[in-house]
């Protein structure tokens, strides 16, 4: 469920018409709904075993206002860089509710996380383990560590967001798990606390999750028999969201939570989870204005003022986002087909191909739905286009939570060296 609905013929974010925001902020812009963020977090939390840590995946949406909203609800954070760690701490997420994932942690990032006192490091390789041990010893600390184990389970999702098979860069292969834990136990700067597993993103079937969790349970029993203290189990994230309205929806959090409870009930571990898309995707939209309707020989193009620099998912993953007219179309009105494209000078700047939409004309507003995750956070200034600003709505209140850059702002990021007259 989300809180973007038509009211009096206009698509609204909670109680705020998107037409009002377009008038005040300009287009394109992102809009996030506080009520949707809260509902998604609370539904997911309520489905899980009591005491579980929900560490929101900051890479899905790193806006400080979004992170603060979730921090106020009790969320922790899953971070994959020193910058994301700094963002989470600045938003008020306690360090002891932050987990640090990612395959390429640097010594500087490790020091910052140890200094902050984070909940755990999800270590992804033996070389990382040795590096973390050295940093911890230099600081006179022991680093709390789970080892991320790759269970070689196919999540049956897009190849670019699959992380649990043997071909990916993530995690330690299952067949080397006991050896890796044995090595970790010899390192004085490392405190083994548990096992981590994460098999991918936008997973729409519970079967891969269950296969992975069952396999990890077998590993937990073996590791305890080897004498390791396995008190925590980080089950990652990845539960899919409904991007396409007419498709069968993915399993809801209640079904996921029931499966987790059944599979892990005898593990004796404190559980943690790293949802991102599940919380944020349908809590955000990207609002854009039609610039031109261009009629070609074979296709009609709706050229809008948002581009792939604002939302790269369709170009990167061929992902589907529903597109709604902000002004509600009359029942039974015509729905011609459009290729919805942006102004970026790339053929891949395509949001939808042959999409049946209400008849559009220059100046009309459209909302690209399910854009709250991996949208603004992946934006760039390609073609010297300032990324779309971000707005947060709460009831009938709204605020700009990341302003639009000016051209001067973009140019000021560059510095001309002295030999060129700078």
Main β-sheet description = 9 strands, mixed
Beta-strand portion reads 15-25%
Over all CA atoms, what is the radius of gyration?
A: 23 Å
Terminus-to-terminus distance: 53 Å
Portion of residues within helices: 25-40%
CATH class of the largest domain, named Alpha Beta
Architecture of the largest domain in CATH?
A: Alpha-Beta Barrel
Q: How many helix segments?
A: 12
| Average pLDDT figure | 93
Helix/sheet category: alpha/beta
Poorly predicted regions are 157-165
Full CATH superfamily name of the largest domain: Alanine racemase
How many independent structural domains? 2
Give the SSE map.
Blueprint (H helix, E strand, L loop, with lengths): L3 E4 L2 E4 L2 E2 H8 L3 E5 H14 L5 E5 L6 H9 L3 E4 L2 H9 L7 E3 L6 H10 L3 E4 L2 H14 L3 E8 L21 E2 L3 H9 L4 E7 L9 H20 L6 E3 L18 H12 L5 E4 L3 H4 L3 E12 L4 E5 L8 H5 L5 E3 L11 E5 L8 E7 L8 E4 L21 E5 L2 E6 L4 H6 L10
Parallel strand pairs: 4-20, 5-6, 5-13, 6-7, 7-8, 8-9, 9-10, 9-11, 11-12, 12-13, 15-17
Antiparallel strand pairs: 1-2, 2-3, 4-14, 14-15, 14-19, 16-19, 17-18, 20-21
Helix pairs in contact: 2-9, 5-6, 8-9
């Amino acid at each position: 469920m989300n809180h973007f609905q038509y009211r009096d013929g206009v698509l609204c974010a909670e109680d705020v018409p998107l037409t009002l925001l377009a008038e005040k902020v300009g287009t394109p812009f992102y809009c996030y709904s506080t009520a949707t963020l809260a509902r998604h977090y609370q539904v997911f939390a309520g489905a899980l075993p009591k005491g579980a840590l929900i560490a929101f995946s900051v890479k899905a949406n790193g806006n400080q206002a979004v992170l603060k909203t979730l921090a106020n609800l009790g969320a922790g954070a899953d971070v994959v860089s020193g910058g994301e760690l700094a963002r989470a701490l600045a938003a008020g997420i306690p360090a002891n509710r932050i987990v640090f994932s990612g395959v390429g942690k640097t010594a500087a990032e490790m020091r910052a996380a140890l200094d902050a006192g984070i909940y755990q490091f999800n270590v992804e390789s033996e070389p990382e383990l040795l590096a973390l041990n050295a940093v911890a010893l230099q600081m006179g600390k022991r680093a709390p560590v789970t080892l991320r184990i790759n269970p070689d389970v196919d999540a049956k999702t897009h190849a670019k967001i699959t992380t649990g098979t043997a071909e990916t860069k993530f995690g330690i292969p299952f067949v080397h798990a006991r050896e890796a834990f044995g090595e970790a136990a010899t390192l004085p700067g490392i405190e083994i606390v548990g096992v981590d597993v994460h098999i991918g993103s936008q997973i729409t079937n519970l079967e891969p999750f269950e296969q992975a969790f069952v396999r990890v349970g077998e590993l937990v029993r073996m590791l305890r028999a080897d004498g390791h203290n396995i008190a925590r189990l980080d089950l990652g994230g990845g539960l899919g969201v409904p991007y396409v309205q007419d498709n069968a929806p993915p399993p809801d959090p209640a079904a996921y939570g029931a499966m987790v409870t059944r599979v892990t009930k005898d593990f004796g571990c404190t559980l943690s989870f790293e949802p991102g898309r599940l919380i944020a995707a349908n809590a955000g939209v990207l609002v854009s204005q039609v610039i031109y309707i261009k009629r070609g020989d074979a296709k009609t193009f709706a050229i809008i003022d948002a581009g792939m620099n604002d939302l790269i998912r369709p170009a990167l993953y061929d992902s589907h986002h529903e597109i709604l007219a902000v002004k509600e179309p009359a029942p039974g009105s015509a729905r011609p087909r459009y290729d919805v494209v942006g102004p970026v000078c790339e053929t891949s700047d395509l949001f939808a191909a042959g999409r049946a939409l209400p008849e559009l004309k220059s100046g009309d507003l459209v909302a690209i739905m399910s854009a709250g995750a991996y949208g603004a956070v992946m934006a760039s200034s390609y073609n010297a286009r300032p990324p779309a600003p971000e707005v947060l709505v709460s009831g009938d209140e709204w605020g700009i939570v990341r302003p639009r850059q000016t051209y001067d702002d973009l140019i000021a990021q560059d510095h001309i060296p002295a030999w060129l007259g700078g």
